[in-house]
Write a structure and sequence with these properties.
The structure is a single chain. The protein is of the alpha/beta class. The protein has 2 domains: 6-160 and 348-385, ATPase, nucleotide binding domain (Nucleotidyltransferase, domain 5); 162-333, ATPase, nucleotide binding domain (Nucleotidyltransferase, domain 5, 2-Layer Sandwich). 36% of the residues lie in helices and 24% in strands. Strands 1, 2, 3, 4, 5, 6 and 12 form a 7-stranded mixed sheet that branches. Helix 2 packs parallel to helix 3 and helix 6 runs antiparallel to helix 10. The two termini are 17 Å apart.
Length: 389
């Protein structure tokens, strides 16, 4: 495979928002800093409501069940296989022409902190969607479980997108921040003329997750389309003060977070701070916390070393006008744009990343950034599963 001039690679992503599966088909040339790609096709496959509910309840220790986790691991492999076949159909490409799949898997629990047990210090994460099953179901060599190798050498297993950001968005003369707003918001910091070892990146806090949870509870909707509800409200001072005092904001990088922090208990405590506020005001305040936390992270951990020239936003949050307006105000000295405006599909970006990380894995290239994850050394990421003929 590595001797081919170009490779047809599918990338699969399903994130903490648990909306569904993003599948992208790329034509990839080269590897490492010489990587180049062309997007051939992209599809979104929403999770059926029962599957989404099953994933969400099995992401929390209080409601997870070992029998459901076991079945989910195989069920997701089938759903990922369907997504691969769907993107191949969209591209009118036969499955026999696809060389490689990179699958992030569905994170149900991420425990990046050190934990001492049985004389060993471990960090742990769990992404479901069995790699071997996916390779067998599609007949295509598949790479998955990208996070665990980094954790084995002391890293947090996240974030992994910064390596891709460096490959594709580094600039000789412009200092850039790549911001992804999914369920969690995260930034990649690319100083002008940076090498891979100069890159820093971390999760800033919640992205869409809190607002989505509030929309479900208060309005019976899955999300605030375009940020319209948030835009109609006003800040709830006590709630905003409570949010901005969250201890995660003060933790120094490397750091990562997820549903384990912003869970049902967090939502319960949040609602206790509302004191009878209007629903739109609660959503407004929670939505405002996302860009404020992003800017707070920039002010605390980035600004002293680098002044940002460009802020490039991707993920579902890039479609939220309330978020984008707030970011434009907070980063008034920078050019704020979306990944689409920068020439890359914002919807497909994370799926593209895991296609490229799979390409790096089969070439034997280390793709974690120790400065970002806290790992002791660079390692090749991912488990490679080959289909049996």
């Amino acid at each position: 495979m590595t001797e081919k001039k170009t490779r047809m690679v599918v990338g699969l992503m399903s994130g903490t928002s648990v909306d569904g599966i993003d599948a992208v088909l790329l034509r990839v040339r080269g590897a490492g800093p010489a990587t180049r790609f062309e997007e051939v096709a992209y599809v979104e496959r929403p999770f059926p409501a029962p599957v989404r509910s099953m994933i969400l309840r099995n992401s929390l220790p209080a409601t997870a069940r070992i029998d459901e986790l076991t079945r989910l691991n195989m069920l997701l492999a089938h759903l990922y296989a369907d997504a691969v076949k769907a993107v191949a159909r969209r591209a009118r490409v036969g499955m026999d022409r696809i060389d490689l799949i990179g699958c992030h898997g569905q994170t149900v629990h991420h425990l990046p902190g050190r934990h001492r047990i049985a004389g060993k210090t471990v960090r742990a994460t769990l992404q479901l969607g069995d790699v071997s099953a996916l390779a067998t179901l599609t007949g295509v060599t598949t790479v998955g479980n990208f996070r665990t190798a980094d954790m084995a050498v002391g890293g947090q297993g996240a974030p992994l997108v910064p390596y891709f950001d460096w490959l594709m968005f580094r600039s000789a003369d412009s200092s850039r921040i790549l911001l992804n707003i999914g369920g969690i918001a995260n930034i990649t910091v690319l100083p002008a003329g940076c090498t891979a070892s100069d890159v820093s990146a971390f999760d800033t806090g919640p992205g869409n997750m809190i607002v989505d949870g509030l929309m479900k509870r208060l309005y019976g909707r899955r999300y605030d389309r375009g940020g319209k509800i948030a835009a109609s409200g006003r800040p709830v001072p006590g709630l905003l003060q409570w949010l901005l005092a969250h201890p995660y904001l003060r933790v120094r990088p490397p750091k990562s977070t997820g549903r384990e922090v912003y869970d049902e208990r967090f939502m319960h405590d949040l609602l206790r701070c509302t004191k009878g506020a209007a629903h739109a005001d609660i959503v407004h305040t929670a939505a405002l916390f996302t860009p404020l936390a992003i800017h707070d992270a920039y002010r605390r951990f980035v600004q002293k070393a680098m002044t940002v020239d460009e802020l490039i936003v991707s993920g579902g949050g890039a479609k939220n006008a309330f978020f984008m307006d707030a970011l434009n105000g907070l980063f008034s000295d920078a050019w704020v744009s979306t990944a689409d405006e920068a020439g890359m599909s914002g919807d497909a970006k994370e799926a593209i990343c895991f296609a490229i990380l799979a390409n790096e894995a089969v070439h034997g290239n280390a793709a974690n950034l120790p400065r970002v994850t806290g790992a002791r050394r660079p390692v090749v990421l991912g488990v490679v599963a080959r289909p049996r003929s």
